[in-house]
Amino acid sequence: MNILNMLKSVIRLGTVTAIYDERGYLQVTFFDKDETPRDVPMFSFVQEYNMPEMKDTVLCIFLPGSPEGFCLGKWFSVDNKPPVNKRTVWFKGLRKNGSMSFDDETETLTIKAKHIVFQAEDITTPASITADNDIKSGSISLTLHIHGNGNQGQDTTQPK
Domains of the chain by range and CATH? Predict the structure, then answer.
């Protein structure tokens, strides 16, 4: 087997034709050979779960002379452009409508999501927190909060 044929059997491009979320596997139909689609595990970067979509073109790697391999996923191309074009920005797309990014120059972490849920026993910050809208603690609104007992319209003092 010459080196070109060996590489063609090791590095393969294909289309996702089924997704098996519970197993972390994909079914891939390959462009270069007329064969039955193959089930391959999705490569996991540090326990990251990020399956491609149906009909995505993916890159798969196989062990030489073996049917065993895995899918590396998609890559940037003319049809799949990078979401940012600045080397000082780390970006992670979170499925279809969310993302995270960190800008080295401004030292800013940005999280884009419709809802963010923190699951923590305690959240502490030495910084101030600014909000464009109301902040609520339980059912108490900071915007609509009114003190009773004759303090209405007056400055309040620190709790004792």
Answer: 3-73 (2.40.50.140), 84-123 (no CATH)
